[in-house]
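Much of the work behind modern protein science is quiet bookkeeping, done one molecule at a time. The fold becomes a row of whole numbers, each drawn from a learned catalogue of backbone shapes. The protein below has been through that process, and both of its lines are reproduced in full.
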Amino acid sequence: MSFIYSTTAGELDMADDGGRFGGETTYSTITYAVEEAVATITLARPHARNGFTLTMADELGAALAAADRDDAVRVVVLTAQGEYFCVGMDFAEPSIGDHDAPDWDEPATRVVRPMTNSNKPVIVAFPGPAVGVGISMTLAADFRLASENARFGFVFARRGLFPEGGSTWFLPQLVGLAKAKEWMLTGRVFSAQEAHAAGLITSVHSPDDLLPAAYALARELAVAIAPNSAAVIRRALVAMAAHGSPEAAFALDKKTIPHASTSPDLAEGISSFLEKRPPRFTGVAATDLPDLTAWLDR
């Protein structure tokens, strides 16, 4: 695969990373690459079954922020090297950091918050097992594709730990309260097929077909979907889930529909449909939309 640009230990500008990375950074636990409007973030600690560390938390957060800032990126794919996606926290490494610091965020939140607030769709491809933070840090993604070899487990209670990364909110949204309680209270490990049946996983594939399926979906999103529409849809769906009635959605619609009605993307979407050709959307969420946080705040 030939990348437009890539970083195995790559230097990227991290000016908007919340101060965790100053100036340029070098990734040591992940790789980052961009090709054809798709940013690929890969967990790169196969020797440790991609065990999660503080460094990995910060680097994943920085890479997600970098993809969101890059107007050339329309979709993010998150995957892993080796036979495992992530077996949870690597207890041989520092796992908490200075939690008394005033700007401290717990490690999984450092990944989940930028994933939640990203304007770009996120696809996760699990080549193998993902347990603990290995699964909880992916719940804010839009699609989760799994190999038949994947296994999942919210094993926190079996380790004397608590769920993190906002997973006590995300998991019931995805699979319902009863299933979330079952998985989290028992801490048992379950198959990709069970995860798919419950709605946690979008689709299950043979190991050889997993990445081709993930990139086929990524290319479809990159080509056929207006970036501004994707940004509003993915963030609005999460924001509206917190409200007990549709009134918040009605209020949001009063802002989004007038904006869309004058958008060049709307004209292009209609023209491409009538002319039976692929659309050529030119909108850029970072510059063509107002601050979505303000739009989503009632």
In short: The mean pLDDT is 87.
